[in-house]
């Protein structure tokens, strides 16, 4: 979608662009229009019309950093083409040059200029970064970016740099972004839900690229997508959608003091293609009998409360549960529960790894099981990384960080390694993300206007095509 930019900033530039293009005999460019892509202040759209079908691309840069040029995608051969510029900062002067490809001939335009607009007031001052000793921050971190979401309608996915500057955003009209995830395909994958949906629960799946274009948009009710989904949306190596869903079953709970028709809300894993066709499905009811849970009457409305799903290195699932304080490994083909880590699980637990509720369980860059411990029993949140011996069912703690009690986080949260010495931690209830070393010393913090469910780190090299530090 194309939206013309403000009269004040761009009318003169538009006239210059059109006249210069028409008068440039070396160019096949007929005229140019400039505006916002999808009405997004940080995405600039250049519409280029040529006198004959041609491929078009652009190089663009901030006038204050001419040596840091980005190159747009190259269009298909056509008379009318649209290019999208990312890496846009608010209220900043930019220059760009267009290139055409026509039957092996390359043409280039003059250099043109524009100035970006200010962000809307409701997107200003959303983030504040603090680094008492910036020289201690690793370069991979300062060159990287953070991905997070706003759950209430209108929902947002944000990409923020470590200076606290909003560098990219995508808005979901009239619905919240409950959970968001940066994929291996350099896209943003999200669960959408209304304000009436519980915190991390939703009824739609949205995938957009970094130009803000929609790749996938599925609504509950389409195809086999018949469930409320929650807490996690990822893709497997077959590019299929993988999410957690609510599995409600009517059961006879009279044997444990309940009713003949009680509803137990469990969790499951749902795998679908991009059209909403079910590929694979698993339910916690396949592995555990609710009647054997002594707390089932208390927890039947949200029996296990699964809150994260990821892949082990062998392609099987890792699934964390809030209510029973366990992390399970589940066979991605048979659905067999391979092991349970945590209290009452199948591993002998290390004395220094006594956690109560885990979030964001995943395999870190060292091959260890890493997770954020809410720490309900201690009223102190922690970060753990544990080396597992699956054959012997033993575990050894590699990282144990006790976070300051001032940022104790009883719900939500995440912890991901940035490099071998630092970890990015999200304490959602305090609207804060922190960078800590392995000793628990806080090196950096980001105060946020919203309580993100989690904060993911993306290194600068991964995003270099779209964003520069």
TrEMBL record:
<dbReference type="InterPro" id="IPR010262">
    <property type="entry name" value="Arylsulfotransferase_bact"/>
</dbReference>
<dbReference type="GO" id="GO:0004062">
    <property type="term" value="F:aryl sulfotransferase activity"/>
</dbReference>
<dbReference type="Pfam" id="PF05935">
    <property type="entry name" value="Arylsulfotrans"/>
</dbReference>
<keyword id="KW-0732">Signal</keyword>
<dbReference type="InterPro" id="IPR015943">
    <property type="entry name" value="WD40/YVTN_repeat-like_dom_sf"/>
</dbReference>
<protein>
    <recommendedName>
        <fullName>Arylsulfotransferase ASST</fullName>
    </recommendedName>
</protein>
<dbReference type="InterPro" id="IPR053143">
    <property type="entry name" value="Arylsulfate_ST"/>
</dbReference>
<feature type="signal peptide">
    <location>
        <begin position="1"/>
        <end position="26"/>
    </location>
</feature>
């Amino acid at each position: 979608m194309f939206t013309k930019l403000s009269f004040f900033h761009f009318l003169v530039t538009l006239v210059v662009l059109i006249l210069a293009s028409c008068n440039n005999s070396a160019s096949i460019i007929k005229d140019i229009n400039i505006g916002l892509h999808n009405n997004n202040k940080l995405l600039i759209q250049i519409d280029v019309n040529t006198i004959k079908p041609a491929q078009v691309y652009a190089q663009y840069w901030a006038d204050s950093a001419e040596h840091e040029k980005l190159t747009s995608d190259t269009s298909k051969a056509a008379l009318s083409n649209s290019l999208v510029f990312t890496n846009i900062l608010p209220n900043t002067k930019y220059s760009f040059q267009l290139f055409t490809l026509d039957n092996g001939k390359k043409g280039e335009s003059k250099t043109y200029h524009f100035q970006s607009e200010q962000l809307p007031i409701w997107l200003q001052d959303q983030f504040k970064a603090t680094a008492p000793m910036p020289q201690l921050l690793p370069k991979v971190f300062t060159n990287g970016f953070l991905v997070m979401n706003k759950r209430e309608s209108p929902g947002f996915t944000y990409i923020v740099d470590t200076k606290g500057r909003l560098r990219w955003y995508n808005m979901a009209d009239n619905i919240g972004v409950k959970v968001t995830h940066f994929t291996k395909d350099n896209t943003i994958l999200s669960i959408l839900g209304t304000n009436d949906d519980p915190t991390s629960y939703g009824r739609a799946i949205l995938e957009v690229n970094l130009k803000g274009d929609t790749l996938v948009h599925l609504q509950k009710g389409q195809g086999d997508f018949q469930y409320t989904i929650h807490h996690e949306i990822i893709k497997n190596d077959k590019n299929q959608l993988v999410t957690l869903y609510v599995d409600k079953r009517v059961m006879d709970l009279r044997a444990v003091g309940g009713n003949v028709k009680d509803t137990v809300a469990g969790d499951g894993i749902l795998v679908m293609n991009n059209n909403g066709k079910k590929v694979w499905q698993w339910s916690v009811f396949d592995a555990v009998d609710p009647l054997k849970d002594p707390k089932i009457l208390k927890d039947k409305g949200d029996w296990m409360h699964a809150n994260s799903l990821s892949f082990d290195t062998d392609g099987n699932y890792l699934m964390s549960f809030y209510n029973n304080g366990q992390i399970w490994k589940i066979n991605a083909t048979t659905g067999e529960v391979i092991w349970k880590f945590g209290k009452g699980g199948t591993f002998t637990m290390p004395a220094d790894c006594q956690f109560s509720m885990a979030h964001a369980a995943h395999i870190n860059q060292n091959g260890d099981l890493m997770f954020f411990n809410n720490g309900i029993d201690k009223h102190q949140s922690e970060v753990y990384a544990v080396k597992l011996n699956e054959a012997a069912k033993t575990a050894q703690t590699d990282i144990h960080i006790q976070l300051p009690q001032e940022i104790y986080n009883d719900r939500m949260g995440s912890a991901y390694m940035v490099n071998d010495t630092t970890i990015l931690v999200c304490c959602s209830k305090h609207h804060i993300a922190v960078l800590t070393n392995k000793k628990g010393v806080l090196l950096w913090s980001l105060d946020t206007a919203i309580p993100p469910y989690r904060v993911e780190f993306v290194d600068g090299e991964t995003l270099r095509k779209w964003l520069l530090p």
